[in-house]
């Protein structure tokens, strides 16, 4: 069943993702903002939650939640990603987690478990039917459960293309990544995602831009800045408009 899914499988790209995204300042910015938004689940002494990391990748963000005592289930259609996440959890001494080599859709069909919190980060834009995937996630949430959703922003993709001199034609799909690229091929319009969430009675309680400046800066000038300065600048503007709406990714924390 897994082999026939049209959604993007990163088995062949795991090493490049680890080097170019997770092991870079890009990945550090992303993780810092996500953990900042998820701070209510990272405080000491709270009741352990049942959490699903849907399309977990390397499981970096969810491991921070597991270290706080929450119970994690991680699923991904990439065997290489699941193996990497499992190795990272083992290295950190985390035992309160299980790992499933399966799609989000299959997890909904094959399990009756419902979750207090679901993480779905940088997955929706790779799905053949992102609206239906969001519906799947909603079905797996407990009443009053939380969804942490990060998606690739079409506004930011257009902005970056124009800054490079590629003035945006509406029918020009190559601006949104190629089949062997790490750039998603299906960036999402924020207002469309918000409408989908509203239809599912998912109430947005926090919204942040992820990489509101980093991807648009001149790389030579950026190299002259310290990582700390870049991180502080990103965090300072991550929850303010118009920066959220033009960020490379948008993170939403919502409640059912």
User: Helix/strand-derived class?
Assistant: alpha/beta
Per CATH, what is the topology? Answer: Rossmann fold
What is the top-level CATH class?
Answer: Alpha Beta
| Number of E-type strands | 7
Oligomer: single chain
Radius of gyration, rounded? 18 Å
Question: Top keywords for this entry?
Answer:
single chain; 256 residues; alpha/beta; Rossmann fold; 7-stranded mixed sheet; 11 helices; 7 strands; globular
What features would you describe in this structure?
The chain is an alpha/beta fold and 256 residues long. The protein has one domain (2-153, 189-255): Vaccinia Virus protein VP39 (Rossmann fold, 3-Layer(aba) Sandwich), CATH 3.40.50. Helix content is 38%, strand content 20%. It contains 11 helices and 7 strands. Helix 3 links the parallel strand 1 (50-54) and strand 2. It is globular, with a radius of gyration of 18 Å.
């Amino acid at each position: 069943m897994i082999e026939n899914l049209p959604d993007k499988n990163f088995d062949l790209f795991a090493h490049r993702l680890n080097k170019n995204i997770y092991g870079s300042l890009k990945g550090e910015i992303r993780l810092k903002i996500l953990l900042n938004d998820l701070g209510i689940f990272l405080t000491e002494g709270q009741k352990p939650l049942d959490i699903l990391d849907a399309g977990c990748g390397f499981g970096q963000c969810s491991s921070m939640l597991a270290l706080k005592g929450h119970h994690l289930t991680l699923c991904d259609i990439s065997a290489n990603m699941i193996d990497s996440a499992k190795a990272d959890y083992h290295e950190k001494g985390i035992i309160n987690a299980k790992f499933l080599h399966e799609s989000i859709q299959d997890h909904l069909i094959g399990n009756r478990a419902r979750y207090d919190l679901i993480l779905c980060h940088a997955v929706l834009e790779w799905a053949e039917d992102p609206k239906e995937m969001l519906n799947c996630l909603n079905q797996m949430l407990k009443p009053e459960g939380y969804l942490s959703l990060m998606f690739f922003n079409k506004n930011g993709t257009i902005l970056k293309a124009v800054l490079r001199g590629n003035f945006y034609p509406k029918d020009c799909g190559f601006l949104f990544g190629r089949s062997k690229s790490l750039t998603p091929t299906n960036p999402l319009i924020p207002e469309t995602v918000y409408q989908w969430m509203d239809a599912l009675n998912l109430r947005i309680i926090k919204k942040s831009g992820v990489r509101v400046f980093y991807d648009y800066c001149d790389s030579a000038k950026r190299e002259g800045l310290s990582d700390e300065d870049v991180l502080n600048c990103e965090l300072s503007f991550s929850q303010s408009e118009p920066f959220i709406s033009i960020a490379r990714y948008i993170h939403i924390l919502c409640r059912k």
